[in-house]
Amino acid sequence: MQFAQRIDDQMDSNLEALLAAPAAGQVSFAGGLPDPQLFPERELSSAFSQALTTAGAQCLQYASAAGYEPLRQKIAHFLRRDGVPASTNTVMLTQGAQQALDLTARLFINPGDGLVVEGPTYAGALAAFDAYQPHYLSIPVRSDGMDMTILRQTLEQHPVKLLYTVPDFQNPTGTVMSLRKRKQLLALAREFDFIILEDAPYRSLRYRGIGLPTLRELDTDDRVIHVGSFSKILSPGLRLGWLTATPALLSRLITLKSGADLETSNLMMRAIDSYLNTNDLGQHIRQLRSTYAAKQEAMSTALQAGLPQGVGCSQPDGGFFLWVTLPEGCDSERILSRCRDHVTFVPSTTLYAARNDRRGIRLAFTNPSTDDIQRGCAELCNSIRQELVMVNSTKQLQQRN
Amino acid sequence: MQFAQRIDDQMDSNLEALLAAPAAGQVSFAGGLPDPQLFPERELSSAFSQALTTAGAQCLQYASAAGYEPLRQKIAHFLRRDGVPASTNTVMLTQGAQQALDLTARLFINPGDGLVVEGPTYAGALAAFDAYQPHYLSIPVRSDGMDMTILRQTLEQHPVKLLYTVPDFQNPTGTVMSLRKRKQLLALAREFDFIILEDAPYRSLRYRGIGLPTLRELDTDDRVIHVGSFSKILSPGLRLGWLTATPALLSRLITLKSGADLETSNLMMRAIDSYLNTNDLGQHIRQLRSTYAAKQEAMSTALQAGLPQGVGCSQPDGGFFLWVTLPEGCDSERILSRCRDHVTFVPSTTLYAARNDRRGIRLAFTNPSTDDIQRGCAELCNSIRQELVMVNSTKQLQQRN
Fold first, then answer.
1. Is domain A22-39+283-400 classified as CATH 3.40.50.1450?
2. In B, residues 309-338, which contact A (CB 8 Å cutoff)?
């Protein structure tokens, strides 16, 4: 019995551990989990009951691989209000945004094909792409998005088919790609003929400042596949995402979805449609923004107070994550093993295509309470201080010898 | 912009069309759709409400790629009662059985690897496997399952990694693999070292006779991956299937599922679990059996009365499908284009790996009413008679010249 080559090539992304609930007494900054107190349980319960009462037989039957049309229509409207050109016929529904990543890689990637990712990037994207055995090219993320100079150099040296980016509140750094860089990226896509996969699950969750146009909006050349999801703005337990692209790309992706899982749950699509008929999603998102802004503020404040000198920390204007950069010689996995009984996070090791960087820490601030954020940050800062003491004394020892 | 090689290799399975609702006035024997009158709408509505009321926050959060443990436990119990060795730790939940097929091919198949399928087979399986570019080897299905002589000859000539079969009420022929052939197949799997993917969505829907042990039950060598689903016994709109295999295989498949869509909807899994807590699935299945047995009877009777001599017809003891075999020279697609305003079905063209057989017709009897079955069969028999007249007169003309 021999597995496919892709299994040997695949690295462990440890996604399961990421999404696990924290143990008792432990503060988890690890998984990108929404605050469960903000889930509209009652409204969703009514929506399911409404869908099953008025159209039970239709809800429970097979439907279509593209997805329930009225819901696609609503998502197209939601996208257009954000400047993204979209219509019912250019939107398909997916099993969370994750499936959109899987299907896009399935459409384009042969083993060895060039695929650009950000460094660091979303671990789940690497897990999705790994199945298609790409040749990863990792581009460093600066405070205003991907390093475009390094990207151009890379494109000059390697053929690239697909580029994956989270331009808004990037996972894991929380940074936003500047307008200048968005335009540069699109120009590079034209020049070097590649597709851009724009993953935008955090886009609606801006806590300050003004949003920039999506890559899809700026795209004059139909090179951008834009992906979104209800996971962060409604509930991840629904597993409903979407993808918008040209009709030509979409029809291929719908065929691939048929092969992957036939279709998304008809009941789920109709219940969410029913929820949107009787609730104001915009109002719900405003509530999320206000709660998450306060949590982000609490975490930033706690880290500014507690982090030792020489340790960097991103200042996100939205999203779920904050990124800590450690000085040379530090090891985020060692820090985690020191503090994991009290506080957990995602070490950078799983967040790079080459899994080779140990100097970053991803902190999700959305799930824990403000109290837990303060407690967890204090523990984390302690552990980082111990790491620095250890690293510095090792350095001094080496210098003496 | 260039698609991956798999896109060029892929043939159109037309799954979307298969699962579409029939047009007005049209009787559809095409899609394998359950009878919507048998969906437990009220019970499922209560189950969703129950799940969201008692554990809303948990239902709506991320959960686990393997699936909600209490539901896996119940499915393991359901499997054990059927003789299949299974425990919570050897069951994972999937996005319908379809995803189990996708993940299994993903685990084993490199481009060009030998994959045995039945001829004819389930079109959706071909759509799932196509993404991994296997070298298909198609083995004819007899009235007691795959032709084992041809299978052995094929295995002696080609290396094979995976074999896909629907041993119970095969899709599309409705046949059951005999016990002798089940044992032969397992012996061949040992001898030629391949994995068997046993797809059993129709297994509980036996209308007469006594069931045979599953391949997984007879498997002494851990070579069988057994797949099931709630689609045919509860509702396809839930999109919930499962897979049981050894823990070693399962852990790989769970990792692949993480990459494909992170996890199945937590809410869906918990609501189905809640449904099973308060309803008797066995009782529900007995009701399905009684309704479907009558429909199968009605279709068999109508076809026996109406089909011209020389046209064969399977006599399934369960499942969803009946298979019509046409004499040489006949073309099921031509028949369909003649009668499609009144009755539709699946022509054999999409049901063979090589898409080269035109002499078969798949008829699903579960969705239409008994009246529609009679009306549709009369139209179909008419159209087949016209085809025979045309084929025979062409033959006579050719013989004269």
1. no
2. none
